[in-house]
Design a protein that fits this description.
Mean pLDDT is 85; it is low at 1-30, 328-332 and 336-345. Helix 1 (69-77) packs across helix 10 and helix 9 (277-290) runs parallel beside helix 10. This protein has a single domain (10-325), classed as Ureohydrolase domain (Arginase, Chain A), CATH 3.40.800. The strands form two sheets. The protein has a nine-stranded mixed beta sheet with strand order 1-5-2-6-11-10-7-8-9, with helices on both faces. A two-stranded antiparallel sheet has the order 3-4. Helices cover 28% and strands 17% of the residues. The protein has helices at 69-77, 118-134, 149-154, 179-188, 210-216, 224-230, 235-239, 241-244, 277-290, 310-325; strands at residues 10-11, 50-55, 93-94, 98-99, 106-112, 138-143, 160-165, 193-201, 220-223, 249-255, 293-299. The relative contact order is 0.16. The chain has 345 residues and is of the alpha/beta class. It is globular. The structure holds manganese (II) ion (MN). The site of manganese (II) ion has 7 residues, from loops.
Length: 345
């Protein structure tokens, strides 16, 4: 088994076996796993679509462990990987919607090495994600502390609306002492971020009026109660005309604590009264299917707090559903990286 160089800023760990067009073979390993058994690098001629990336920044919290999430998500994904060891086509079958990921070009780029300091991790993550975005792949980033969203969004190249699934606004003003409670305020101050849409806020918290400040800056809020009552009927109001028309891209940031603790227990700041799995999935799918998504993250899953992989499997399934819904938008063919396919943005 050899370690491959998957680009500056990444720690490569993936062993690639022989490759052939449309059917990349990977060696299986009990310790070194990739998401859905996907390869580290695309085959020549593949269409660049989704790059799974771990951002192992553990945050500055009393309860460590979120930095271990990417590898647990990879491990939990193995039950959905092709049983014959191949990586393509991905044969996940959904009884309602058929083969969800058939035709999706996927790579697992490994993990971004993250220092245990927010300012250092910021430049490490931003640099690595910029490299992925430049190569034409949509970054699908698994945290890590939710702070990782800030450097990921900084690496995006175009105007974007940030769709923020979370129990909390993350809009405090304490970036040094509480990065994951404050980063969204800094995301909102980036010049290319048009607005933030907070989905799933709730709880009775000693965190000040971050929401009031956010709303005062033109952002939008939908509480968990309202989402559970009205669901995807709110889609037009959530997204707005610019994203629905494709004039503006979206970035989806998903803190697992938006889910009810019974659905996703393994997170450090859970709040009662969250979204059901079905509601979170339906909203995620509707948003990804209706807009031009240029990046996603799933954060704050702490494997040390999980049992029987309940939260890990929720995260794996939400990723599968979101990627399937966002499929095929604005990607380009590997081996022609400087030439975008005609008719695609
Ligand atoms: Mn949160």
């Amino acid at each position: 088994m050899s370690t491959v160089n998957v680009g500056s800023g990444f720690t490569g760990f993936i062993s690639a076996g022989g490759t052939s067009k449309g059917a990349i073979q990977l060696e299986r390993s009990s310790t070194l796993l990739t998401f859905l058994n996907q390869p580290a690098a695309p085959a020549q001629g593949d269409v660049a679509q989704v790059a799974f990336i771990g951002a192992c920044f553990d945050g500055l919290e009393l309860q460590p462990g979120v930095g271990e999430a990417p590898q647990h998500v990879r491990r939990a994904s193995q039950i959905y990987a092709n049983s014959d060891g191949t990586s393509q086509p991905i044969t996940i079958f959904n009884p309602a919607r058929g083969y969800l990921l058939d035709g999706i070009g996927f790579v697992d780029r490994g993990d971004i090495a993250c220092a245990p300091r927010a300012d250092v991790a910021l430049s490490q993550i931003q640099g690595a994600i910029a490299e992925v975005v430049e190569s034409g792949w949509m970054p699908l980033v698994v945290g890590g502390d939710h702070f990782i969203t800030y450097p990921v969004v900084r690496a995006l190249k175009e105007p974007v609306v940030v769709i923020h699934f979370d129990a909390h606004s993350d809009y405090l003003d304490e970036l040094q002492s509480c990065p994951h409670g404050s980063f969204m305020r800094h995301v909102g101050e980036l010049a290319h971020v048009k607005r933030i849409v907070h989905l799933g806020m709730r709880g009775n918290l000693q965190t000040g009026d971050g929401i009031g400040l956010s709303l005062g800056r033109g952002n939008a809020l939908f509480t968990a109660d309202r989402l559970m009552a009205e669901g995807t009927s709110l889609l037009d109001e959530i997204l707005g005309r610019d994203t629905l028309a494709g004039d503006c891209a979206t970035y989806v940031s998903f803190d697992v604590d938006v889910l009810d603790p019974w659905v996703a227990p393994a997170t450090g700041t859970h709040e009662p009264g969250g979204l059901s799995y079905a509601m979170a999935r339906d909203l995620l799918v509707a948003i990804c299917a209706s807009t031009r998504v240029i990046g996603m993250d799933f954060t704050e899953f702490n494997p040390r707090l999980d049992w029987n992989d309940i939260t890990a499997k929720v995260v794996v399934n939400l990723i599968i559903e979101a990627v399937a819904a966002a499929r095929g938008k604005g990607r380009r063919r590997i081996g022609a990286a400087s030439r975008k396919e005609s008719g695609q943005s």
